[in-house]
Amino acid sequence: MSDVHSEPMDPREQAAAFAERFVALEAEVGKVLVGQKTVIRGVLICLMTGGNCLLEGVPGIGKTLMVRTLSEALSLEFRRIQFTPDLMPADVVGTMVIAEEDGARGFRFEPGPIFSNVVLADEINRATPKTQSALLEAMQEHSVTVAGITNPLPEPFVVLATQNPIEMEGTYPLPEAQLDRFMLKLNVEPPQREDLNEIIHRTTRIQEPHVDAVMAGPEILQWRRLVRGVVLADHVADYATRLVLATQPASTASAEKVKKYVRYGSSPRGAQALILAAKVGALLDGRVNVAFRDIQAAALPALRHRVLLSFEAEADGVTPDELVREVIRAEPSRDLLNVDD
To answer: How many domains are contained in the chain?
Structure first.
């Protein structure tokens, strides 16, 4: 594992160093996880920006394995919370317990598994909305309040949650307020033939792939500062703003399909997610400024879970991804033609 750079570097050198370390972490996770390169990159984008990530897919396609493998590639504390219908909020954040100290009895706070650097909320939508909401403060403020006392969480902190499609039996849709606190939502697709053959080859041998820890907390915090320092021109930021506004059916800028099929569009958090993911994309491309194509590449994972469909959309089989793509197509392209990004 490389040391955190102590001497000032040229911005382009910093971008190259970031991309090198990012790719090294990708490769380490790829030792175990077959395929899913887009999903792995999305998870790492959340890690490098301090955002939370939601992974959705049917059981058995590697969602939990991906997060566990990432935790092995990081020198960070990792906790897994298995969400079930009987899980209570105190099982997540912790609770006050009776303790005796110096002969006097009183209460002390017993931290829950949320007090970790990387928290896997496994099958998060199998718990009740009350328990799901126990994560809200932790995901947004990186703290937990119990009995009126606010306890900060360790840094870096990130929640990586997995969920099964909500049509499956025994699942509860996540509250909209919680969905909005996930920076990106990544759809994990079943493996294709070649990938499935490789999965069988890797997982049925005596010796399984070994993952080394390649990055620690101080380095991650350093890269997070670098990401936020990437240059964002006003006209590029305005393009992200227009995309977000175009997802809102009440906006004059929204397309007819959006007005017809969307109940609620993206909040300002969607714009923040677009920008931060785009900044990582710029660094990975060796640039220190955000381009329009970086915004477009981040649009689907940043906005798909922030576009809430109407009943008519569900009846017509319209998906959030279709509507986000429609927003990108419908957004006037004159800026893309006339402004050098």
So the answer is: 1
Residue whose C-alpha is closest to residue 163's, from 152, 151, 171:
171
- Maximal C-alpha separation, the chain: 76
Asked whether residue 250 is assigned to any structural domain, the reply reads: yes
Closest CA to 259 of 334, 328, 310: 310
Structural domain harbouring 281? 230-335
pLDDT higher than threshold 50 for residue 340 = no
Alpha-carbon distance of 64 to 50, in angstroms, equals: 20
Q: Where are the alpha helices (DSSP H) in the chain?
A: 11-30, 37-49, 63-72, 89-93, 129-132, 136-141, 176-179, 193-203, 217-228, 234-245, 256-261, 268-284, 292-303, 311-316, 320-330, 334-338
N residues, the chain: 341
* E strand or H helix at 52: strand 52-56
Instruction: Look up the CATH number of the domain holding residue 315.
Output: 1.10.8.80
Domain assignment present for 329: yes
Beta bridge partners of 184: 53
For the CA atoms of 45, 254, 245, 312, the dihedral, rounded to the nearest 10 degrees, stands at -70
5 domain-assigned: no
Digit-coded pLDDT (tens) for 263-290:
999 999 999 999 999 999 999 999 999 9
Please name every residue paired with 94 in a beta bridge, in sequence order, or none if there are none.
111
Is residue 298 assigned to a domain? yes
Q: Is 216 exposed, middle or buried (0-12, 13-18, 19+ CB in 10 A)?
A: middle
pLDDT tens figures, 31-54: 887 778 899 999 999 999 999 999
